[in-house]
Design goal:
about 375 residues, 2 domains, seven-stranded mixed sheet, binds pyridoxal-5'-phosphate
Length: about 375
């Protein structure tokens, strides 16, 4: 039998997938586990996709993505955030932010280069660094700082890790904690990144789901454009996960390097998705605002309800996740999640799926109907009372 590459053999499977294999096949489970909107893509966007197929748009596109879409993204970023990107040299359309993150790592890392990766963080970050031959230097964040990185921590990590720290990955609003950064906090992070000559990989896929203050892209801060790769996409804000369209903006040299890998491995993002994305940017913003206001209502409910039943839960500033502590139960997060699933048929994600330092927490997605959330809280309450 063929041997599998050592790098891949050593890669741990996604903790979320492993847990959700358990959920498959069970009936009447309320799943608060998946990280995708419960809304379907707004109808006018779906209609555009269907019509494009009827019109015969079934071909490859330019490797970088359709120029019209890249132009629209450039214009959108200019009006939304005052950012200036050249549509032809500084923007690449990817198969979701997922592909973009992988391309970025492969484009910038040499063997042994170090990348600062926060924890808890989205499950793909460490694997994409390691698959590209880099070493992830984990920066733990905790409730004491609202699950945010601090400039001091970044500075210290650079000093301790010594030579070869090339980049910092950051995701805000964050999956799984919902933590986000204010403009002032970002300024401080930008300053320390500059000081340590860090290139920043900034995944802002949840930017439109920021509830308590305005989202500020790191790349929009003065003097930061050349030091940041800015990632965004259509999956979350427009409920378009299945269309698989993301984008990355950054220095032309880095985007060109990423495009080289993209053209050999992916060729181009699917045309149906790119056309749907154009429609989303043209007239989808009202739907984004409607979904956001519903997520906010659910966030306010679930944070209050979890605290009331005895699970300490901070108020997240964005995305659609809460990250309550289950320390008061005395159970490990995997045992808690498995027992809750078995006894009460509620599925959530054990904290350890996001890194070993996340023991004692679980991730609950509130991208689920309000009534399902209420029923889930009542079942969790029942579980806690029976313990
Ligand atoms: C932080 C973060 N980045 C990237 C992704 C992947 O998004 P996409 O669908 O654009 O590949 C996700 C999906 O859950 C995510 O939570």
């Amino acid at each position: 039998m063929i041997e599998i590459s050592r790098k891949v053999e050593q890669l741990a499977p996604s903790g979320i997938r492993a847990f959700f294999d358990l959920v498959l096949g069970m009936k009447d489970v309320i799943s608060l586990g998946v990280g995708e909107p419960d809304f379907v893509t707004p109808w006018h966007i779906r209609e555009k996709a269907i019509f494009s197929l009827e019109q015969g748009y079934t071909s490859y596109t330019s490797n970088k993505g359709m120029p019209e879409l890249r132009r629209q993204i450039a214009a959108f970023l200019k009006t939304r955030y005052g950012m200036n990107y050249d549509f032809d040299e500084e923007i690449l359309i990817t198969v979701g932010v997922s592909e973009g993150l992988d391309l970025a790592m492969r484009a910038i890392l040499n063997p042994g280069d170090k990348v600062l990766v926060p924890e808890p963080v989205y499950v793909s970050y460490r694997p994409v660094v390691e698959l590209a031959g880099g070493t992830a230097v984990i920066l733990k964040t905790g409730i004491e700082n609202g699950f945010k990185l601090t400039p001091r921590q970044i500075d210290k990590a650079c000093r301790q890790a010594g030579q070869g720290v090339k980049a910092l990955m950051i995701n805000y609003p964050c999956n799984p904690t919902g933590a986000s950064y204010t403009s002032a906090e970002l300024q401080r992070i930008a300053r320390v990144a500059k000081k340590n000559k860090l290139f920043i990989i900034s995944d802002e896929i949840y930017d439109e789901l920021t509830y308590d203050f305005d989202h500020v892209p790191l790349a929009s801060l003065k003097g930061m454009k050349d030091s940041v790769l800015y990632f965004n996409g259509f999956s979350k804000a427009y409920a378009m996960t299945g269309f698989r369209i993301g984008w990355v903006c950054g220095p032309a040299k880095v985007v060109a390097a990423m495009t080289k890998i993209h053209q050999y491995t992916i060729l181009c993002a699917p045309i149906t998705g790119q056309l749907a994305a154009q429609e989303a940017l043209k007239s989808g913003f009202k739907s984004v605002q409607e979904m956001k206001s519903e997520y906010k209502r659910r966030r306010n409910y679930i944070v209050r309800a979890l605290n009331e039943i005895g699970l300490e839960c901070h108020m997240p500033q964005g995305a659609f996740y809460v990250f309550p502590s289950i320390k008061s139960t005395g159970e490990k997060s995997m045992a808690f999640a498995q027992n809750l699933l078995k006894k009460k048929k509620v599925a959530l994600v054990p904290g350890v799926a996001f890194g070993p330092s996340c023991e004692g927490y679980v991730r609950i997605s509130y991208a689920s109907a309000y009534d399902s959330l209420k029923e889930a809280v009542s079942r969790i309450d029942g579980y806690l009372r029976e313990k």
